[in-house]
Amino acid sequence: MKIIGLVPNLKKDIDLQHTRSLIQWLEQKKIQVKIPQTIGGILGRIDLECSIELLYQQADFLVALGGDGTILSTARQAAPFSKPILGVNLGKLGFLAEVEKTASFTALEQILQGHYTIEKRMMLDAIIISQNKILSDPFIALNDAVITRGSFSRMADLYIYVNNEFVNRFSADGIIISTPTGSTGYNLSAGGPIIHPSTEAMVITPICSHSLYARSFVVSQQDIVTIHIGGQYIDQENNKIEEEIPHEMMLTLDGQLGYSLQREDKIVIQKSSYYTHLIKTTEQNFYDIVRKKIVGGRK
């Protein structure tokens, strides 16, 4: 390992104190460090900064310093370059992080000595089709792609297809398409199942569906999920059906990137060709993390 890229969250690493300490520690070991352009000026180390693209191209691996949000954003940017990521938790939950702040130097020492493994995590591709036109290149996500209504008290009219076969229509606040990695996030909060991250599958979970039987269902990694936004919504306040799309319908990726949707739009979601590569340096397994950070330490 010759070049290490540091990706700190300015809101989590106050005054970049931990980033400074890591840079000093790595340079003492003759390791070249790269940091984003926005960070170099703050640290007074312009000599280390480079563009985001060069950072992900040149680094042998990346250290994401922050919470799960920092790891998610780093994962999307690193995926096209297949660069592994060490997640260091400076936040609260840090479910995706491999180590806490105090263990970051030990973890880096293990990596430099070759004592680590790589865990591959499935990602999603999502495209928006509007008026029979694909609006952009696929968006990628590590956790989930979520279609939701806005702040108005109106439920969306959503039609779900898997491999062009009609599954169901949901009148709901939205729907979540989650990876196994994302199954412990919004999917879990909405009543969806926890799936081991080594599994390659997708979970489809309706959000507050107006139904007694709406439940999550799991589809395989080969399946293609299409969500068609219908032209109706249920006006809860007036208890009637209107022939319009609710205001502020959005596609959100990993809870960080948002795109507006229109009536009759289709969102097509499938397994991405990209993977997130997470560095593992500890012996804790997925179930240890679930007990510790979700169940609350109960045995």
In CATH, the architecture of the largest domain is Sandwich
The low-confidence runs, each spanning 5 or more residues with pLDDT under 50, are none
Number of strands: 20
- Spell out the helices and strands N to C: EHEHEHEHEEHEEEEEEEHEEEEEEEH
CATH topology group of the largest domain: Tumour Suppressor Smad4
Quick one: CATH class of the largest domain?
Mainly Beta
Which helices and strands occur, and which strands form pairs?
Elements: E1 3-8, H1 17-28, E2 32-36, H2 37-43, E3 49-50, H3 52-58, E4 61-66, H4 68-78, E5 85-89, E6 99-100, H5 104-112, E7 117-130, E8 133-134, E9 139-141, E10 144-148, E11 154-162, E12 165-172, E13 174-178, H6 186-189, E14 201-207, E15 217-220, E16 224-235, E17 240-242, E18 250-253, E19 257-260, E20 266-280, H7 286-295
Parallel strand pairs: 1-2, 1-4, 2-3, 4-5, 5-6
Antiparallel strand pairs: 7-8, 7-9, 7-20, 10-13, 10-18, 11-12, 11-16, 13-14, 14-15, 16-17, 16-20, 18-19
